[in-house]
């Protein structure tokens, strides 16, 4: 049986945020999935988007009737504008202003493109 390595805070001290560390860990886990391993960009995007799943559901499919926004299928321009508004504080939030600061401009654009491409659940 292969055991995962123990968490080493010193090894992650150079990383900018816990989100980046989580994305790295998820990417390493998903590499074992052959379909994703053939497309590193897709793997990277899905690893970034996985951090959003906790609140917004898998692939942006938030649970219907919940207060959280469904991201799947929203226009890309709308998603990126809202992410940037959270980042600057123009749109008040409880946690999104902190989360968006952990991503680069390129990563936020990548996430907005990913969620815009998802088909909303019926």
UniProtKB/TrEMBL annotation:
SUPFAM superfamilies in the record, alphabetically?
A: Cytochrome c (SSF46626)
What does the UniProt keyword field contain?
Answer: Electron transport, Heme, Iron, Metal-binding, Transport
Q: Which residues form the Cytochrome c domain?
A: 35-119
User: Is rRNA-binding tagged as a keyword?
Assistant: no
List, alphabetically, the InterPro entries matched.
Cyt_c-like_dom, Cyt_c-like_dom_sf, Cytochrome_c_Oxidase_Subunit
- Source organism's superkingdom? Bacteria
Cross-referenced Gene3D superfamilies: Cytochrome c-like domain
Write down what this protein is called.
Answer: Cytochrome c domain-containing protein
Q: Which organism is the protein's source?
A: Sphaerotilus microaerophilus
